[in-house]
Design goal:
Layout: H1 19-34, E1 41-42, E2 51-52, E3 62-69, H2 74-81, H3 87-100, E4 105-115, H4 120-137, E5 140-148, E6 158-169, E7 184-189, H5 198-204, H6 220-225, H7 232-241, E8 248-251, H8 256-260, E9 269-274, E10 279-280, H9 282-288, H10 295-299, E11 306-312, H11 317-326, E12 331-339, E13 359-363, E14 367-368
Parallel strand pairs: 4-5, 9-13, 10-14
Antiparallel strand pairs: 1-2, 3-6, 4-6, 7-11, 7-12, 8-11, 9-12
Length: 369
């Protein structure tokens, strides 16, 4: 006979949190995490914290570099299309590309996965993408957190956040202070919108057929879910050569070239970009045409086909482009650094105390595929 005192007892599972599902996920992802193991990793997953021994034999004055990011509303598109195998690559890319601009070598990565109800199969797909991104970047997937929070996330919704840590020699930090007029601007092609501007993209998708083919033959939905390119292998290889002086690096995310390139330029300089130096990818042509996005809005919202920028001395530009091509990067000389002319509103006439803020100017027009 059932004890009346225990008849109405509740369990954590009754509240919507199933510990067994979490345990099952850990076992599923264990081999995925193991594939990202690199020198420096101590122990394995399952502990309260990940351990990593710094490679101090290779650094005299090591500086740690960290970054955190997510993938925004691109997640919603992944849920709607039922495609979760590459969104983890996006997560890693957004973090490691950010710390790369300092010249840093990514060492390890942590992830945070939250949902209303943990779907082990889907979460495994997501983590598989995270592990793949870590492999490309050369970073260890050192740990993470899975949170099941019923009542906070509805239906199949989930959220992701990532955290990357890298290391750079203090004397080798790239911070843009060497940038000067005459330097060349090298642009590395993106794989699509990456993980930015998707609130606007999803607005434009209302009533749109995601299976329709773009002019290059790629289905629209596939083009929009293409994972963010990880630039670590090519750029790190270029830096290791020693024959190209990289004065600045910029990761082109939300805000496009217009907002991100000035972040690494010193006062008194401007970037003059030749739009005809690269071909506008078909997915951005769709945004500009069918999406009714004006060119100015396109440039200050999306990467428009250039996901990473290097600023190098003009004499190093050809070497940089060739070296990057050897590591699979499609790179183009897309402009140069010039002296910024002060605008009339910037300061009273004759006031020379402050140099004009960096900006991006565009000349010419795009060719399309």
């Amino acid at each position: 006979m059932t004890d009346p005192a225990r008849r109405n007892t509740l369990t954590y599972a009754d509240a919507g949190v199933d510990i067994a599902r979490g345990d099952a996920l850990v076992e599923r992802i264990r081999p995925l995490v193991e594939r990202t193991r690199r020198s420096g990793v101590l122990g394995g997953i399952g502990g309260f914290g990940g351990l990593f021994e710094l490679p101090l034999d290779r650094y005299r004055q090591p500086v740690m570099v960290s970054g955190a990011d997510g993938v925004g509303t691109k997640l919603r598109l992944a849920v709607e299309l039922g495609r979760h195998d590459t969104i983890g690559i996006d997560l890693v890319a957004m973090c490691v590309n950010d710390i790369l601009v300092t010249g840093a070598e990514p060492l390890w990565f942590l992830d945070y996965y939250a949902s209303g109800r943990l779907d082990v199969d889907r979460a495994t797909e997501v983590v598989a993408g995270i592990a793949r991104g870590c492999e490309i970047a050369g970073a260890a997937l050192l740990g993470g957190e899975t949170a099941e929070m019923p009542g906070l996330y509805a239906g199949e919704d989930y959220d992701l956040a990532g955290f990357a840590v890298g290391i750079v020699e203090k004397a080798d930090i790239i911070d843009g202070h060497r940038v000067g007029a005459g330097d060349a601007i090298i642009g590395l092609e993106s794989s699509g919108p990456h993980s930015n501007g998707y609130s606007l993209i999803r607005r434009l998708l209302e009533g749109e057929d995601l299976a329709r083919a773009l002019p290059d033959g790629t289905p629209l939905g596939e083009a929009l879910l293409a994972p963010t390119r990880i630039y670590v292998p090519g750029v790190r290889a270029l830096l290791a050569r020693g024959d190209v002086r990289v004065h600045a690096l910029a990761h082109v995310t939300g805000g496009g070239l217009s907002e991100n390139l000035p972040r690494v330029l010193p006062p008194g300089t401007a970037a003059r970009i030749e739009l005809g130096a690269w071909t506008l990818p078909a997915v951005f042509e769709w945004l500009r045409g069918d999406g009714r996005i004006a060119e100015g809005e396109l440039l200050r919202t999306f990467n428009c086909g250039i996901g990473m920028v290097l600023v190098v001395p003009a004499g190093d530009a050809d070497t940089a482009v060739r070296a990057l091509a050897e590591h699979g990067e499609r790179a183009h000389a897309i402009g140069r650094i010039v002296v910024a002319e002060p605008s009339p509103e910037a300061a009273p006439p004759g006031d020379t105390r402050t140099a004009p803020s960096p900006r991006v100017d565009y000349v010419g027009g795009w060719s399309t595929r």
